[in-house]
Amino acid sequence: MNEDVAIKVEGVYKDFYLPHEKHDSLKSTVVNIFKKKDATIETQHALKDISFEIKKGEFFGIVGRNGSGKSTLLKILAQIYQPTKGRVQTEGKLVPFIELGVGFNPELTGRENVYLNGALLGFTKKEVDLMYDDIVDFAEIEKFMDQKLKNYSSGMQVRLAFSVAIKAEGDILILDEVLAVGDAAFQKKCFDYFRNLKKNKKTVVFVSHDMGAVREYCDRAVMIEKSKLVLEGDPEKIGTEYRKMFITEQVDSEDNAEEASKRYGDKAMVFSKPKLTKKRLRDDDQELELKVTVTAKIDIEQPILGFSIKSPTGQSILGMNNKLKKQTLEILKGGDQLDLTWSVPNVFSNGSHYIDLAAEYNGGSLIADRWEESIRFDVDKEEQTRNIVSPSVQLKMKSKSGK
């Protein structure tokens, strides 16, 4: 294995054997000896021929629908399961953040469970003594530490488990949906912790349904579907393809073929054809005004409506939605229309640019209408640069004599 590779997965298969007959007596056991094994046991192929490499210092994402095999793959990487076929090589100390809280005893207090869990992670009592205050501060449950764990809420238990687990420093961290821990304030702590991991070039393998987190943190990602690795590469592309898997309907049949190929969603909300105008402000300064109407087909709670602008090469330059602008709408009732007007300074460099539209709901997990390249606009400025953006820049020069 190359010295810059932290994890190498080669041709991994994983099968589970599911018996369909229960032998609860000596008679049934003896009788069924003569039956064919295949008739009573079903083979479930959880993973099929999975291969990839993770480099040292890389933040690597694994995404997939429930039942696709991603959690099984994670447990193989964490050495909880052994592959049926193939092999996994790792370089460095591996710390799994899987099934947080396993080993906790509900009859013990929070304090006692910290020491118990610390021992399971390989810490001595003296080491736990030194880190105890930091663990409690991070979990934010100091006044509950002498209560029995069975009196904790599930969120408090996971927060405590997470706070202990992050003390087990390793070269490779295996994370399974731990960003969903706790309330908003505690999640911010988790985000800060993962940003620090990325900054310190830790090797991290991260499984999540949160495509926003995958896009923000991951350097590369893979998508697992029906036990197979179907896509590997840029997290932005992986995130888009993952969300397309949940689309239940396509655009209306009367839409032209070119538009249909760039538009998808379940049509719970639908965009009208957008309109873009350029307004001159002063000198060469311009403002772009994007107008579009969204129509709800059903009642939608807290819709997320936004846009993004891409460069001539397809690179995303900027994006915004009403949630980020803190202009939330509690409900958009079926049949209602909402007019949106976005204003953006024209800071873009010369060339053809494209605007993508997105209408989402259910916290952003469901796509109602995603319209890629809904409209194109051209920029032609006298001042030309090689940069992605080219805002109006003022320059003042004043010469001074060297005498």
In short:
This protein is α+β, with helices and mostly antiparallel strands. 23% of the residues lie in helices and 36% in strands.
Structure notes:
This protein has 403 residues and is an alpha+beta fold. It folds into 2 domains: 5-21 and 34-243, Rossmann fold, CATH 3.40.50; 260-379, abc- transporter (atp binding component) like domain (Coagulation Factor XIII, Chain A, domain 1, Distorted Sandwich). The protein has 10 helices and 20 strands. The strands form 5 sheets. The protein has a 6-stranded mixed β-sheet, sandwiched between helices. Strand 15 (304-310) and strand 16 form a beta hairpin. Helix 4 (110-120) crosses helix 5. The protein is globular and about 90 Å long. The N and C termini lie far apart (66 Å).
CATH topology of the largest domain: Rossmann fold
Unreliable sequence segments: 248-255
Count of folded domains: 2
Question: Could you tell me the mean pLDDT?
Answer: 83
Q: How many helix segments?
A: 10
Q: Write the CATH homologous superfamily of the largest domain.
A: P-loop containing nucleotide triphosphate hydrolases
CATH architectural name of the largest domain = 3-Layer(aba) Sandwich
